[in-house]
Design brief:
Elements (H helix, E strand, L loop, with lengths): L4 E7 L32 E6 L6 H6 L1 E3 L19 E6 L2 E5 L5 E5 L5 E5 L30 E8 L5 E5 L5 H8 L17 E6 L8 E6 L26 E7 L5 H15 L1 H4 L3 E6 L17 E2 L8 H30 L1
Parallel strand pairs: 1-3, 2-4, 9-11, 9-12, 12-13, 13-14
Antiparallel strand pairs: 1-8, 2-7, 5-6, 5-8, 10-11
The structure holds guanosine-5'-triphosphate and magnesium ion.
The site of magnesium ion has 6 residues, from helix 2.
Length: 340
């Protein structure tokens, strides 16, 4: 099952207590303090992993607890530190602190582990608490509690291009034509119920470069009011650089249909709707003769079945992607210089 949101509770390990003890030796009735320190509690880390694609495992487990530090012991024996816990999450997971609402982490890189709950420090034993004024401390410190947090994990998949269209527009067929992804394809609406990603080789970019295309469920008029599959899944194209708006060639009014799609995007987020767009009229193989003039100006016609127009569409997409990425970089640079 594709789970893209869940709440988990994490509790880092408590620190072990320090020990209160004295050296015991024959003929030496009152030895020096020799209580060891407690070990630190285990930390909790989160790490983005390209091997996982949903939050299903995390949602199933829900509670994560790291081991506590072992208490210190006599003879200056230090307690072992608690084992850490590592929670792997899919790339694109945003972690919010449920209590403060703050973003704690945005997992974008594979394998990079980030500390999210600190283990408690181990308490000092009386051997470590010796001072000149108090050579025989009759006390030791307790371990500190480990951090506890309630976190909301929200997955927004990472893709460069998002496919937007009504159900049956041919989004999944297009993705399977241009990549090795094999989403389910069928002639009934809402075949796609969860996002699918495909990697497309960049024909015009540097050698070996590629980009990720996301296929999502179909959008219908008023889906922002909960019709069809709603608009919640639009979060998965929120991070794309460009959108491909796809309308079937059988449409009476492709431009009007595209407007309806864009209005639905606006209901989700104005920023999403404002992304650069590439307009495609799909299934052009069903058109014949004069009907081919139906392709609106500035649009491209494609048939994912015959492959007609697909190369050209990819080339246009790649050019738009290049411009969009360049603009994003420029915006990032100007933001950085403004912050300096
Ligand atoms: N003739 C023709 N049929 C196509 C073409 N592309 C897709 N189809 C057919 O259109 C139907 C819907 O295709 P899908 O790719 O599943 O459409 P979708 O947009 O992913 O649909 P949802 O997942 O329901 O939103 C299938 O029966 C496809 O075989 C095309 O280029 N030409
Ligand atoms: Mg589909």
């Amino acid at each position: 099952m594709f789970i893209d949101e869940t709440i988990i509770e994490v509790k880092a390990g408590d620190g072990g207590n320090g020990c209160h003890s004295y050296e015991r030796m024959k003929y030496k009735p009152k030895g020096k303090p020799d209580g060891g320190n407690g070990g630190n509690g285990g930390n909790i880390y989160l790490a983005g992993s390209s091997q996982i694609h949903t939050l299903q495992d995390t949602a199933y487990r829900r509670r994560y607890k790291a081991e506590r530090g072992v208490h210190g012991m006599g003879k200056n024996m230090i307690g072992r530190r608690g084992e850490d816990v590592l929670i792997p999450v899919p790339l694109g997971t945003i972690v919010y602190d449920e209590t403060t609402g703050e973003i704690v982490l945005d997992c974008l890189t594979d394998g990079q582990k980030e500390l999210i709950a600190n283990g408690g420090r181990g308490g000092k034993g009386n051997a470590s608490l010796v001072t000149r004024s108090n050579p025989n401390p009759e006390f030791c410190e307790p371990g500190k509690p480990g951090e506890e947090k309630r976190l909301r994990l929200v997955l927004k998949v990472l893709a460069d291009v998002g496919l937007v269209g009504r159900p049956n527009a041919g989004k999944s067929t297009f993705l399977s034509r241009v990549s090795r992804a094999r989403p389910k394809i069928a002639d009934y609406p809402f075949t796609t119920k969860e996002p699918h990603l495909g990697i497309v080789k960049n024909q015009n970019g540097p050698f070996g470069s590629s980009y990720v295309v996301a296929d999502i469920p179909g959008l219908i008029e008023d889906c922002h009011k909960g019709k069809g599959m709603g608009i919640r899944f639009l979060r998965h194209i929120e991070r794309t650089s460009i959108l491909v708006i796809m309308v079937e060639a059988t449409s009476e009014d492709p431009v009007g249909d595209a407007k309806v799609l864009i209005t639905e995007l606006e209901h989700y987020s104005v920023l999403l709707a404002a992304k650069p767009k590439c307009f495609l009229l799909t299934k052009t193989d069903v058109l014949s003769g004069d009907e081919l003039n139906k392709i609106p100006e500035g649009w491209l016609g494609v048939s994912a079945v015959t492959g007609e127009g697909v190369e050209l569409a990819l080339r246009k997409l790649e050019e738009q992607l290049k411009t969009a990425n360049y603009k994003e970089m420029e915006a990032l640079k100007s933001n950085e210089s403004a912050a300096d």
